[in-house]
Each structure stands twice: as structure tokens, then as C-alpha cells.
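Per reviewer request, we include the raw input and output of the structure prediction for the construct analysed in the revised manuscript.
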Amino acid sequence: MRKKSFFGLGLILSLALWPSLSWAAVPGTPVLLSPTNNAKGYNKDITVVYWSKVAGIARYDVNLRVGNNHFTNDDRQTTENGWHEYNNYITPSQAKTSGTSGINGLVANTTYFWQVRACAEATGDNSCGNWSATYKFTTAGNPTSVVLSFPVSEKTVNGSKVYEKIYKNVPKDFKWNISSDVVYSEVKFFASTDGNCGTDAFATYKTSAKTINSGILAGTGSGLVCWQVVAYSNSGSKASDIKKFNLVDSFLAAPEALFAQTGFDNAMFYWTKNGGSGSTIEVSKDSNFNDKASQEVTGENNFLWSSGTDAIYAYVSNLSLAGKNIYWRVKTGTSAWSKTKTFKSNFLVSPTLVWPKGNQITASSSILKWSSNANAKLFKLHVAGESVDYTAYTTVSNYRLPSSGLNWVVGQVYNWNVTAINNFAESAVSADQTFTAK
């Protein structure tokens, strides 16, 4: 009976003490989540470590050391309430599922070991659970290189530096080379005064690419501009050398197409304005344009043309130009000259009439003759007089008048002339000659 009573008393005491003993239960062991073991490339300035939460605890202890995984209490870095409460880099989803710690002051390109344990009391070691497994991660190194590749060219002409031209209306890609550890780059532009680069960038652009289009400078004033790229890895930054380029308002591209030129006193040129206005054209028989004639051309169409009725083309009435090399170039009011284009003139010389020249002929069967023209594709013959106004086309330099269908009058004088024609235009009409019908 006494044994049963003693056993019952023990059971009652155990049940009575159970609530006061439950707080001393050993906390569970956190599971390390991030960085994963052997992870690389972490940012030395903003690295955050994550682990699974343990319920009902007062703090976490975080051990962090360099070089190996033999931890001691001297290695422990922690705060009373856990670092996750003041960490600025945690996302809401991570905050719900894990404890976190923002670690500052790490060293670039260095391997760190870390572990975590949970403790039921705010201080001391008696209420702490087991340390987690030990993971290691490596911080990223500083960028190893950043080199500008375009625009970078410069040369000395007559004692002065000449730099690559970047035209606002012909965008090009600025390019640079960076090491694989770079996360993003900042492209900086500085105004240059008297050839010296300023210290304050007037524009800065952030990009993860290795190019940026010069169109971003469309609203910038023209002149000498300095540029630089600063590359950033997860650990630090590295700046390129500073290079210069010449930002130009506009550029008129070399003329894209040229119509063959025909006629004594007219020529037609086509070119793209390429955003410019107030175009000027120069034409010359000399590649250095020493005998140039120039003409301002107005109009806002994409393609501009000018005819020989303008003063610029007055000299082309000289027949000696046929078969000669002609040089020409164009520019807008604010651009440089386009590249010089050249062509061999294809001006059609008007035919010279050979026969008849004041002769009496049998109008209904005679053959009219004139000089041939190598550039002509065909000829237009015109005969006019009393009761006759006749036009005919032929590919040869002679033509037999029709034997019927025309009302020739014996003794009547008729005028005749010939015009040469090719695929583009007509020559001037030849001088008139006459014949008398018999």
C-alpha cells in the first residue's frame, strides 16, 4: 500500500512541476539557407546571410571567421535580439521564413565560414541549442579591367589634336570592354574646356551592357567631350582612362545615288539631307574644287535636286565637258562636307546635221543623215513646213522619209532638226537645216 501511495505522490509532483520545466527545452538547430555552401561572388558591403527560423527563442548566435571552420566563442558576432531586426536588405518573403543577418566590413575576394545557433535566453550559453552545419562563401573581387574601345582614336594634325567625330543625327554605339565579374557600369560624360576635362560629369548613365548609344547626347551642346566608364562588381569599382571625342551637330552623308547627267545646260543630283537643312552643293572639274561652282539649295524634301537653270550649272553648257570626270559634294548649314563623289559626265551632244543642207530632194523617198552619238539610245527627227509637221524616232543616224501619208508641196522649203535621247533625258535640239521638195 505504501508503494502505491509513494508512486502516486511522485506522479502528482511530476505533473505539478511540468509547466515550470517546459521553458528549459533545448531549442532546435537552424538550417543555413543562403549563401549556399561554397557560394561565390558575394558583395562584401551588403552580404546578407539567411537561416531557417526556430520557434520560441530569444536570440540567434552567428559565428563568422576567415580561413577555416574551427570556431570558438571569441569568433561569435551577434546582438541581443538578433541582427535580422535592423538589417536593411531583407525582402518581405524572406523575413517570413528565415532569420537574417546583414554582415558589414567584409574583405573582397575572401572566403568566410559561418554557422548559427538558437538560444532560448537573451544572454548566456546554457539555453542555446546545437550549432548548425558550417557553410562557406567567397566575396567577389574588384573589377580587374575596364577599357574604352570606341570612340578613342586621336591623331595630331598640324600640331593640333584631332578626335573622333560623333554626329548627333548619326547615332553610334559607345563601346568598352570589362571583366566578367562586372555587374553594371556607369558611363560618365564631362565637358572639355581648352582641351581639359572637367571633374563634374554633366551626364551619367547606368547600364549592365557594354555599349550605349550616342543618341543620349542629342540634346547636348556641340564641342569636345570627355567620357569614362566606371565598372562595378559585387565588391568594388574600377574606372577606365578618360578619352575624348568631338560632338558635332549634324552630318550630311555622302550622296547615295546619282542620276546620269544629260543635256547641255542641266544636270540633276540626288542626296539624302540626313536631318540637315539649308543644303549647299559644289561641283567642279577639279578634285580639289579649285574651279568650283556652288549653289545653295532650298526645300525640305528628303531628296533635293537642282537643275541647270541655276547658276551652279552654267558652265556645263560647255560641250567639252562631255566624257569628263565631274566632282561634287554637299553639306547642310551646320554639317561638314560630305565625301566627294565623282562621275564621268554623260551629257548628250546634239547631233550635227549632214544632209540635206539646203538641197532640193525628193521628199517622199530621200534619206536624211546626221552625225551619230555614242551616248544616244535613239534620235527624234522633226520636219516642219507648209502642210507638214512630222516627228519620227529612229535608233540609227539616218532616216528615209515616208513615201506616202504626207502632203509634200513641190517647191516648198522645209526645216528639219534632230534631238539625241538616252535613258535619262534629251540633248539640245540640233541647229536647223532646210531642204526644198521637188
